[in-house]
Each structure stands twice: as structure tokens, then as C-alpha cells.
Amino acid sequence: MTHQDLLNAVEEFGSPLYVYDADKIKSQYKRLTDAFRSVDKLKIHYAVKALSNLSVLSLLNKLGAGMDTVSIQEVKLALEAGVLPQDIIYTPNGVSLEEIEEAAELGVKINIDNLSILEQFGTRHPAIPVCVRINPHVMAGGNTNISVGHIDSKFGISIHQLPHIKRIESNTGMIINGIHMHTGSDILDIDVFLYASEILFEAATHFENLEFIDFGSGFKVPYREGDIETNLEEMGEKLSKRFNKFCAERNKDLTLSFEPGKFLVSEAGKFLARVNAVKQTTSTVFAQIDSGFNHLIRPMLYGSRHEIANISNPEGRERFYSVVGYICETDTFGNNRRISEIREGDILSFGNAGAYCMTMSSNYNSRYRPAEVLMVYGKAHLIREREDFEDLIRRQKLIEMEA
Fold it and tell me: Is the pTM of this model over 0.85?
């Protein structure tokens, strides 16, 4: 997407605005499948939580992806987008048995990460195959909030509790057809990931009815020019070789599964906001925009660094700005960033806004959520309307009472 494409989108649909590039999503999906082309049976389940718009889900499904879901609502979104139940895997954490049973009734693949729930589900539904999520006790991830494979994590069944899983399988007569792990997001050290994979391979030898092994995801994407990222091609070569060897040794024709979210959509997204004011203080020049962490929370929540560009004045003289929002508390997108001269009314573009931006947005300060646009073959398509005041009060009830 060119700067002019983005400016045209703001002109047509207003600001703030999320814009996604369908071509980039396609190229990321192809890069991932190419990295594992030596594997006979590969299944990519897109992590819906990253970006859950129906049009994006439909696009990825048309490319061949299934869906990785973490709530019954995401399951229903995937079905609404036209994804077949057998192409959806449901991997919740801390939900009720009733929600898991509801997902099972819809015909999707079930992934369980709790011994108690596993035993209850197996007792009540022994004929429904399930996958189990293993915690390999391997630390990976760029932030403690997104590192989920370590020993203190709430996710997964400890690898040391494998005998308990086998006991439940035997006692209930249930079928365990998949084994899964997810170490965390922003994986950089391939050797650490491969070490965790060896733990999963060893665990897989204990299950006779396996149909697939799911290695999660968490591939690191670049957030600025020259930024480090997961060497996907090297990982693909090494893990494919090991996976094929495992299948040959076990004489099993298994499916290799992944569940990427950020990798597929992060770089495809731009978040656009208009500069309301430029404010000079004794030490800082603030660029104040018509948005806040209610629309892009990651810099405040994770300390993530999103590239910020002034697409209205890209050739302007660079100056240092702190870009802040309109939320009534500390609300900073970037401190002392070198950006082309910013004028009131300019449009700023935030990179890597495809993942965990709209899906983590809120109505904090009673602000509206922005519209979403998908660029397909150079044409901008509105895929979610901007909220208005009616959306804020739609479910509220004003009761009569005396002061």
C-alpha cells in the first residue's frame, strides 16, 4: 500500500482507521507454507484472536487456512466466515466444561489443557477425539505477558503430568488424536523452539491414535527496518526434516500443524490517525492525535514499538516528537521519535497494526471504535463500519429512580 492509497482511504472513510493489505496476508501465508513444503501433510490454523474480522477470516480460509480459536465466540465467527468445522481447532484456557461441550457439538476439533476438564470431558464424551495441550516448561517469547510455555504458566498440562493424561485416557476410553504446545510469541532462538519440539515428539510416542502434532506459533515479525525476526526458512528446514523422520520411525502419516496469528497479519496492517494538535512544552514536542490506547494498546501494555510515519509530509525535515493520544491518562505511542515535520491535520501511519490492535480495542473514555478497511487489488473495501453513539448505548438501560 502506498502513502497515497492510505491517504485516499482516510479521505473516504475518516480517521482513525485500520487498513489491511490482502496482498501482504497472501504473501505471508505463502512464505509459511513454502518453508514447510517438504512436509506431506501441513495444516495452518490462523489464530483468530489476532484479527477477527469476517472478511480477513474468509480470505485466509480461501488461501487454505483453518482457524485456531480460543473462545466459543471465535468458533462461531469462523463458522460465519464459511470455515468448515473440521478446519477449526478450539484451544480455550480456563473455560467451563459447558463451553467446551458447546464447541464439540458444533463439530470442531477440541484441544484441552486441564487434567480435570480432560477427565470430565472424556467421561462424558469418550467417542469425541481430543487434542491435549502440553506445557513443555520452555521459556520463549518477547514479553512475560506473551511467554506461555514456562513452568509458572497457566497454560497447558505439565509434561511431567504425562502419566496422569495416560491414566485418564485409559480409564475413560477416550481418544487423544492430537498433541499441542505453544511456548510464546516473538520466538527468536530457533534452537530453543526445536528443543521444546523434541519434548513434544517424545510425548507423542505415548499416544497410539495421534493424527496431528501442533507446534503452536509465535514467529517474530520485524517492527522496523533491519529488525530481527524468526528465521522461518531455517526453522522450516530443520523442523520438517525432524518431523518427517519421526513419522517414518513411527510409521505414522501425521499432520504437522501451526497456528500463526501475528505472522500472517501484523505487517499487513496500518493504523491511521490525524494530528489534532502539536504542543510544545519546556522539554518535549507532543504530536496529539485523534486516537489513544483504546485503539492501539500494545505500546502501553507490552512496550511494543510501532513505526510511526507522517504520510502527509514524508519529505519534511525530520524532528523529534512524542506521539500521544487523547485518553485521559498516560497514553503514549512513542517517545522522542524522529519523524518528518508534523503539522496539525497531518495523517500519521502506525506500522504492524494488523495483529492485536482492533481485537484489543475498547470504548474507554466512551470513544468509538474505528472502521476497518481491506485493500484488495488496490481497491479499498469497508469491512467494518465506524461505531457511533447508538453503538455505545445499544445495550444500556436507563432506569427511573429518585435521587
Answer: yes
Phi and psi torsions of 23, nearest 5° = -65, -40
Alpha helices in 36-71 (DSSP H): 54-63
Q: What is the bridge-based pairing of β-strands 255-258 and 332-340?
A: unpaired
- Domain CATH code at residue 196: 3.20.20.10
Cα separation, 125 vs 136, whole angstroms: 27
Position 314, amino acid: P
Domain match, 275 and 237 both: no
Residue 31 marked as a ligand binder: no
74: DSSP letter:
H
pLDDT tens per residue across span 286-301: 999 999 999 999 999 9
> What CATH code is carried by the domain that includes residue 340?
2.40.37.10
Catalytic residues: 328
Q: For residue 90, what are the domain limits?
A: 22-264
Angstrom distances, CA of residue 258 to CA of 74, 176, 189, 328 = 17, 18, 17, 40
Q: What is the mean pLDDT of residues 137-143?
A: 59
pLDDT for 336: 95
- Asked which of 241, 264, 287 is the last residue of a domain, the reply is 264
Q: How far is CA 74 from CA 21, 83, 296, 305, 325, in A?
A: 22, 11, 21, 28, 30
Which residues, other chains included, contact 273 with Cβ-Cβ below 8 Å and sequence gap of 6+?
A: 15, 16, 17, 289, 290, 291, 295, 347, 348, 350
* 12 within some domain: no
For residue 329, say whether it is annotated as part of any ligand binding site.
yes
321 assigned binding-site residue: no
| Residues 139, 147: Cα–Cα separation, whole Å | 6
107 marked as part of a ligand binding site: no
